[in-house]
Specification:
The complex is a heterodimer of chains A (99) and B (201).
Chain A lengths: L9 H23 L4 H23 L8 H27 L5
Chain B lengths: L15 H31 L9 H4 L2 H26 L3 H31 L8 H34 L3 H34 L1
The chains are: A mainly alpha (99), B mainly alpha (201).
């Protein structure tokens, strides 16, 4: 209970600052840099995943309470299914398998 | 069993029932991730089929998208502060930050509706091309979630006014917080893979 009565929500402020840096950093890399399309996509995709992690662990308290292991398995499994759906759909529909 | 209270935990975790409700909501969010994944998948497949209509570069307005992103990011932060105040039993602070959250969410919605109207005005409607159909369905589903969230939080605030901060209202507020942060997570991926990717192509 002790760490819930702190006067200043430092982890929230840090999380907010990090998410702003990641967002504007991604925008800068995408719109201002002269990297290749592929490099840009890998970098901003990674930044998005990092930022999602910040939301989940710093704002949503995913690693808190008795159910944290279940929460982590649930979200990781959902993320896996999400990747299979998105990458799988694009792969099947664009790489000649639909012809 | 369900009436057993563990006062060492934050209010929203104190009863078995509350812990089950919160876990259940996490599982719902897992299903929401998959729902949005299907919409991202559709957009990923159809996003470059313009049928003679406009492409991403022709219609996206960078400045407006950055403002929307900033509003939603900030609202996620203020939501976090609201839960933080709730855990300090500061009901006034909790409601104040919740109101900020809703104002920022409302600002986001206003910008999004204006953006959609701008597109339609430019002749980029849902019927124009497969790109725009999948775009409007993905963005519209997210915007609908934000709209429902605002209505939900208003009802929640009425209940907090009536009943004060109890384990039940604390749990409901915490669950709403999870929902709101989740919408920000979805937006991060829309911002990255729809807007930024569309402007790079």
């Amino acid at each position: 209970m002790d760490n819930h009565s702190k006067v200043f929500p430092i982890s929230h402020v840090v999380g907010f600052f990090m998410s702003l840096v990641l967002t504007f950093g991604a925008a800068w890399i995408a719109l201002q840099s002269s990297l290749s399309m592929k490099a840009v996509m890998w970098i901003i995709g990674t930044l998005a995943v990092v930022q999602a992690g910040i939301q989940l662990y710093m704002f949503m308290h995913m690693n808190e309470g008795d159910d944290k292991v279940t929460n982590n398995i649930n979200i990781l499994y959902s993320a896996f299914i999400a990747v299979v759906i998105v990458a799988g759909s694009i792969w099947v529909m664009t790489s000649g398998h639909s012809h | 069993m369900s009436a057993k209270v563990n006062a060492a935990l934050p209010l929203e975790y104190q009863t078995e029932q509350n812990r089950m409700n919160i876990l259940g909501f996490w599982i719902f969010l897992g299903a929401e991730i998959v729902l949005f994944a299907t919409l991202f998948g559709v957009y990923g497949v159809l996003g470059e089929r313009y049928a003679g209509g406009p492409a991403q570069k022709d219609i996206f307005v960078v400045k407006d998208v950055m403002i929307q992103t900033f509003l939603l990011l900030t609202s996620s932060f203020t939501m976090g502060i609201s839960i933080y105040e709730m855990r300090r039993s500061n009901i006034k602070g909790m409601l104040m930050w919740l109101v900020f959250t809703l104002l920022l969410g409302g600002g986001f919605l206003f910008m999004e509706v204006r953006e959609f109207m701008h597109y339609v005005h430019e002749g980029a409607t849902m019927q124009t091309s497969a790109f725009l159909s999948s775009f409007f369905v993905l963005l519209g589903t997210h915007g609908l979630h934000v709209t429902i969230g605002i209505g939900w939080a208003i009802l929640l605030m009425i209940q907090i006014f009536q009943r004060g901060l109890t384990p039940v209202t604390a749990r409901k507020t915490f669950i709403f917080g999870l929902y709101w942060h989740f919408l920000d997570v979805v937006w991060i991926f829309i911002f990255t893979f729809v807007y930024l990717a569309g402007l790079v192509m």
